[in-house]
User: Fold this.
Amino acid sequence: MDYQPPHGGVHIGGAVSESSQGTYITVLGTRYSVVSDRDDEYVSSLAVFLNDQLERFGASRGASLMQRVILTALNIADELFTERARRRDASKEIERRAEELIAMLDVLDAASGSSGTAMTAG
Assistant:
């Protein structure tokens, strides 16, 4: 059974969907055929990023290939988790501010209602 990435994405090997397209990338000197719903430029940029990260976590330290891959995977996972937390925090802040604005509008609505003027949403 072939791995199917979530939301389309990138897949090494067989077809993902009718709209998917194939391209070749090179990671650590090995060429891969990659099928993706994304365009070739995007897939190539992923390979460049991955190669840069692999180089960053190994070339100067004499790390083995497996150590480089593990360190790279951990670094990318850390970046992903950090970004998810940042987005979650930003979403909570937006929600908090929206609730404050709604409360302010409720106060204004109540104040205008007591003076005999009705506010309506339009």
